[in-house]
Design brief:
Layout (H helix, E strand, L loop, with lengths): L1 E5 L9 H15 L3 E7 L7 E3 L4 E4 L2 E2 L7 E2 L5 H8 L5 E4 L5 H12 L3 E4 L9 H4 L3 H22 L2 E4 L2 H10 L6 E3 L16 H10 L7 E6 L8 H14 L3 E6 L5 H10 L6 E5 L6 H4 L5 E4 L8 H8 L4 E4 L14 E4 L2 H13 L1 H14 L5 H38 L3
Parallel strand pairs: 1-2, 1-7, 2-4, 7-8, 8-9, 9-10, 11-12, 11-14, 12-13, 14-15, 15-16
Antiparallel strand pairs: 3-4, 5-6
Helix pairs in contact: 1-14, 8-12
């Protein structure tokens, strides 16, 4: 099968969507399929082709107020001519706007079935545009709801969502009428297995960040932005340090709020116990999980929480805020703990620190659970959706042709 993946998030950009698309690309290719990527570039004027024509980068510009995100024209004519030569069997769009719109135009113009994955719950991100002004925020959310419903319900052949949380939004809130396939994004789990890293490399990295042998490292991997609630983790770190001064919070990632979060750390006078790594290259991320003793997240803006899947593959116990995104990856008292209050968060961390038996049990269960999220398993499920899309697209086209024929016949014989 020849698959065209349209996305604004693709390496070198580092985020959850970029990671999942790269993983899907590799898994599909491993299964013998040919994958073409249509994405953005850093160039504002020129088109570029990479990997023997398998990666098409479109001219783009940075989106104002949105960290590291780019947008492009919704109909770059030159790109259409290049895509025609790809002879795609199916288009898989991964964003709703700009390149997402372009994917829909190409699907319609070239007669190619369209599968779409809804990665981002955009209503959690309106504050970037409205600057937290409530009236504007309400208007923006209503507009986004309309646009999402229009793009998904009117244009896609099949829809993929990564969790029950997003499925419920589309069914209950958006009243979506077409097929919805719930497929949790997989990852290359083996990349995160602790046995794949040497003690020397891990210790060198620990030395770089001043992590000592006696330290208990609470870690998170996140884009540093308001909706990720990293500030809550920092506040709780202050409380943990009152009990155990060797507790350290490792924050891996970068984002628009990094300076604000660093100021928060300074104001709490805990700078010696909070480590900011800044932006880390995608290929180096796996070893960073080996620095942690427990993985934490307070974000309620996730659609599935890929960093949690990476963490369980690294055999880390998880402490996560209660959210439907983590239902399949964090099972309370099985491979981690779910918290609804700061008190419960602190209690969970302390339990893992103070009881080796509990820690080891949850760590082992994380590793076992990670097998449910392999990239191969994910790619096979996505392929079934592609096959369904192609089959349903042919049926729908046949219905349209039959309707046209009936109209022509009726007009001819004035029925």
């Amino acid at each position: 099968m020849r698959v065209g993946i349209f996305t604004e998030s693709y390496p070198p950009l580092v985020n959850g969507v970029s990671t999942s698309i790269l993983m899907l690309q590799k898994a599909l290719e491993k299964l013998g399929h040919e994958v073409f990527i249509v994405t953005v570039s850093d160039d504002k004027k020129n088109y570029t082709l990479e990997d023997d024509g398998h990666i098409l980068r479109l001219p783009s510009m940075n989106l104002a107020n949105c960290y590291d995100y780019k947008f492009t024209s919704v109909y770059p004519i030159k790109a259409v001519n290049i895509i025609k030569k790809m002879n795609l069997d199916v288009i898989h769009s991964n964003v709703e706007f700009t390149i997402g719109i372009f994917a829909r135009v190409v699907s319609e113009q070239l007669g190619i079935p369209l599968v779409h994955t809804y990665h981002t719950n955009w209503e959690d991100y309106t504050h970037y545009i409205t600057k937290n002004k409530k009236i504007l925020d309400d208007i923006c959310k209503k507009l986004l709801k309309y646009l999402v419903v229009f793009f998904e319900d009117k244009t896609v052949t099949e829809l993929i969502v990564p969790s029950n949380k997003i499925y419920n939004i589309f069914k209950d809130k958006y009243k979506f009428t077409k097929n919805i396939h719930i497929i949790q994004t997989g990852i290359e789990t083996s990349k995160f297995y602790k046995e794949n890293f040497s003690s020397k490399d891990i210790n060198n990295l620990k030395k770089k960040y001043g992590i000592k042998k006696k330290d208990f490292v609470v870690m998170t991997v996140s884009r540093l932005a308001k909706e990720k609630s990293v500030d809550r983790l920092i506040n709780n770190q202050k409380e943990l340090l009152k009990r155990y001064p060797n507790m350290k919070l490792l924050i891996v990632g970068d984002g628009p709020d990094i300076d604000k979060l660093k100021m928060q750390v300074c104001s709490l006078n805990i700078s010696k116990n909070v480590i900011f790594t800044g932006k880390v290259p995608l290929e180096e991320i796996p070893i960073y999980y080996q620095l942690g003793d427990v993985f934490v997240t307070a974000s309620k803006s996730e659609t599935q929480g890929l960093t949690v899947v990476e963490a369980i593959s690294s055999s880390l116990p998880i402490v996560a805020v209660k959210d439907d995104s983590f239902i399949s990856s964090v099972i309370d008292d099985f491979n981690g703990y779910v918290f609804t209050s700061d008190e419960k968060y602190i209690e969970s961390i302390l339990k893992l620190y103070e009881n080796n038996d509990i820690y080891n049990r949850l760590s082992n269960q994380s590793r076992i659970l990670s097998s449910d999220f392999s990239s191969e398993y994910f790619a096979l499920k996505v392929l079934k959706v592609y096959e369904t899309a192609i089959e349903n697209y042919k049926k729908d086209n046949k219905k349209v042709i039959n309707r046209i024929k009936k109209k022509i016949t009726a007009k001819k014989y004035k029925i």
